[in-house]
Design goal:
The protein has 86 residues and is mostly helical. It is built from four helices and no strands.
Length: 86
Amino acid sequence: MIWAFLVFGLWLLAANLAALVSCPIRHNRAALALVVVGIPILGWITWLYGPVLGVLALALGCAALRWPLPRLIAGGTHAQVQEPAE
């Protein structure tokens, strides 16, 4: 039963290490790999411990990934800030 949280902890460690990579291309690839691996882990935690801990794990995972979440919300594109019109 505790294996799910141990695997999730390793996933969080990997997400934080991937955030230290300075190259944006490698960071994007690492983020994609973390999302692909993290979805089954999130389902495993939700199945074993219920939706409350599943949502908590989802929030922790989103906080660890940082940049992919705003990009996902923006529709997969980089949200660009435009200068105000004068």
